[in-house]
Design goal:
With 317 residues, this protein is an alpha/beta fold. The protein folds into two domains: 46-67 and 82-241, P-loop containing nucleotide triphosphate hydrolases (Rossmann fold, 3-Layer(aba) Sandwich), CATH 3.40.50.300; 244-315, Alpha-Beta Plaits, CATH 3.30.70. Helices cover 38% and strands 29% of the residues. The protein has eleven helices and 13 strands.
Length: 317
């Protein structure tokens, strides 16, 4: 694999020194391990999702990969560069968007702020106008380009900040909580925009998010972090398929019958109702057994939500 087309970490640790006393003359400190010996390699031909609970190390990992923070120990290479050395050639090839962090100027029209990108990164006016047109169409942006940011909604500002982050068409873009605080329609539009840029311009996105759909909709590969450790790294769809379950909800005539079914099939009882969790391959057989052996009033079949799957993986770390 070409090292200039990948992200590579070897035994990376990142510790924070935190003050634990209010003493001025003899303060005490403790070391907190935010990242604990992470090792992985990822090709930038695919988007990468990073998922985990609060404090899992997601934002710290993004800061390590972009060079905002140096590692305490270990080796990091991104596109063949050591990130924290912040070489100009490296910075031109990456973009960074952090949800809630503002980069543009509030009191001037958004298009003037966006045009700063072409002066910073040195591309032509024609390229700028073409990219602006493509991005505006994909994000459904119109007259708001001529408004100052202070007059925009949160969703509109987020679109402008996103555009600014990669109008220069970097090879690699890091998105830290890109849909935080946005409404459901704006979140969906942003995910479509990310996929558009990946397909149209070949940009690789590394997305750190609490929102499972940001990862399942945009990232073929994912990493699940917990307490600075990697619980899983690999194909997102394989992970979902491996852990996917069907939920069969059954209503019967009595609590005794519900309890009997629960004992036999391992379900949860709530009065006359039983909820069974089955692997997809076993669902049809179990439904046939239930209908042939018991008097079932009615049943419902539902596939487990992807967010529930990720939650259970973290619970069963």
């Amino acid at each position: 694999m070409d090292y200039k087309k990948q992200i590579e970490l070897k035994a990376v640790y990142k510790n924070y020194r935190v003050k634990t006393s209010v003493s001025i003359f003899k303060p005490t400190y403790k070391e907190i391990e935010a990242i604990r010996g992470i090792t992985f390699t990822h090709s930038i031909t695919e988007n990468l999702g990073i998922f985990g609970k609060n404090g899992a190390g997601k934002t710290t990992l993004i800061k390590l990969l972009t060079g905002i923070l140096p590692p305490t120990s270990g080796e990091i290479k991104v596109l063949g560069f050591i990130p924290y050395k912040l070489r100009k050639e490296f910075k031109k090839q990456i973009g960074l968007f952090q949800g809630g962090k503002e980069q543009l100027i509030w009191d001037i029209p958004a298009i003037q702020s966006l045009e700063l990108s072409r002066f910073i990164y040195g591309y032509s006016k024609d390229d700028f106008l073409q990219r602006l047109a493509d991005f505006s169409k994909a994000l459904d942006i119109g007259d708001e380009l001529n408004q100052p940011l202070r007059n925009m909604s949160l969703g509109q500002r987020c679109k402008m900040e996103l555009m600014f982050s990669f109008l220069h068409l970097p090879r690699l873009v890091f998105l830290d909580e890109p849909t935080s605080g946005l409404d459901i329609i704006t979140r969906s539009n942003l995910r479509s925009f990310i996929n558009f840029c990946h397909q149209q311009y070949g940009i690789c996105f590394v997305i750190s998010s609490h929102n499972v759909k940001d990862i399942t909709d945009c990232c073929k590969s994912c990493i699940i972090l917990d307490k600075g450790n990697i619980l899983y790294q690999g194909d997102t769809y394989y992970l979902l398929e491996k852990n996917q379950r069907d939920l069969i909800t059954i209503n019967v005539d009595s609590e005794n019958l519900a309890s009997e079914i629960s004992r036999k099939f391992g379900g949860k009882v709530n009065g006359n109702q039983v909820v069974l969790e089955t692997s997809i391959s076993d669902t049809n057989e179990i439904i046939n057994q239930l209908l042939s052996q018991y008097n079932i009033n009615d049943f419902q079949l539902k596939r487990k939500d992807t967010e529930d799957i990720f939650t259970e993986i973290l619970k069963n770390e």
